[in-house]
């Protein structure tokens, strides 16, 4: 989803400087049955059953892997209910009535430093798989699959760049949990027998820089360093981050591991910390609630499964309740829009952006070339759009739309307000046929 952002007043710096509000006690929590990577699921509980926090209550099934579903509070299973998911679709959610007792599943246990030092890469991979860790920057890519690489890893990159406008959830996590980030890096370096790691942040984040320069004094000789990169979008795209942090330019489709690099989003790292240290799946996350449509944009730390509706009053409510709104789950460039605030915070929801709806009228292409100039993977979005309009499949394939990383810049930069990215996405589907 590209939010047409000509009216965006980005409150990013201001919101990122305020501590996140802890909101941990919603009456009901909602856990998605299925997701895009695992479209089928089995439920292990029946209505009226009591569940504990972190308990496995079901299993999602995808074409390549399975993913346990964990309860994010203790309480009673009420039934299934439909709400909007991160993918923009109405989806079945497992509704749990919170008993506010926070009783834990028996699988949660603290590992001592000695126990952790004795873990092999394979053992860590199993722990991370059982805890259903995924890319929390929004990719939802299963973390255990990254751990399964057999390529020798020379460097770990931690992505704390958070380059899309508006979002400051990772910013707060980095400021509020620096030791969890550092310990997770140590565990990951141990797993890969890797001697070097870089924490990548935007160079303008001087507050994060100050904190980590201080914390790194306690990790002298660890091989971990801070790496300040560019302040632009899409600096957080892994290809761009790797290029700036290491000088290595990945070829299209090339995996970072083939160059001895593995990268994780910083929230994913904290998920790894919880899994290895406490055998805990991710049941909480930082989220930014922002946009011109609400009174007081804020960061929150919430339980996975919290309804966005509960956070709106804590942001002072809607600025213009009578105006139609646009709700974007994720960043304005790559997020998915949903038609209402009846949506749930899943593990990969980094933010919700609420904007008063502006009806843009698409104008004819003026062949200005802005979309071509803005494309980070050197595609010709306008040509792809024309080929899609002409239904010319041969031409679509020649224009290589599969290289598109869906950054949204072609639509953002279009002088005629054409959603060019949408055409490129359609071209990708054609190219795969
Ligand atoms: S969305 Fe795709 S085609 Fe458009 S600028 Fe980004 S990478 Fe290029
Ligand atoms: S940016 Fe828009 S108007 Fe300009 S060439 Fe691309 S599609 Fe056409």
**What's the total helix number?**
14
- In the CATH hierarchy, the architecture of the largest domain is 3-Layer(aba) Sandwich
Helix amount: 25-40%
Mean pLDDT: 94
**Arrangement of strands in the largest sheet:** 1-14-13-17-15-16
Radius of gyration: 22 Å
> What's the CATH class of the largest domain, please?
Alpha Beta
- The total number of structural domains is 3
Number of strands: 17
Instruction: Give the CA-CA distance, first to last residue.
Output: 23 Å
CATH superfamily of the largest domain: NADH-ubiquinone oxidoreductase 51kDa subunit
Q: What form results from the Cα inertia axes?
A: globular
Oligomer: single chain
Provide the β-strand percentage band. 15-25%
- Which secondary-structure class do the elements indicate? alpha/beta
Bound compounds, please?
iron/sulfur cluster
CATH topology of the largest domain: Rossmann fold
Low-confidence stretches: 1-8
**Main beta sheet, described?**
6 strands, mixed
How is this structure best described in words?
It is a single chain. It contains 14 helices and 17 strands. With 433 residues, it is an alpha/beta fold. It has three domains: 5-105 and 300-319 and 341-348, no CATH class; 113-278, NADH-ubiquinone oxidoreductase 51kDa subunit (Rossmann fold); 370-432, no CATH class. A six-stranded mixed beta sheet has the order 1-14-13-17-15-16, with helices on one face. The two termini are 23 Å apart. Residues 1-8 have low confidence and may be disordered. One iron/sulfur cluster (SF4) binds at residues 374-377, 379, 381, 404-410, 421, 424. One iron/sulfur cluster binds at residues 374-377, 379, 381, 404-410, 421, 424.
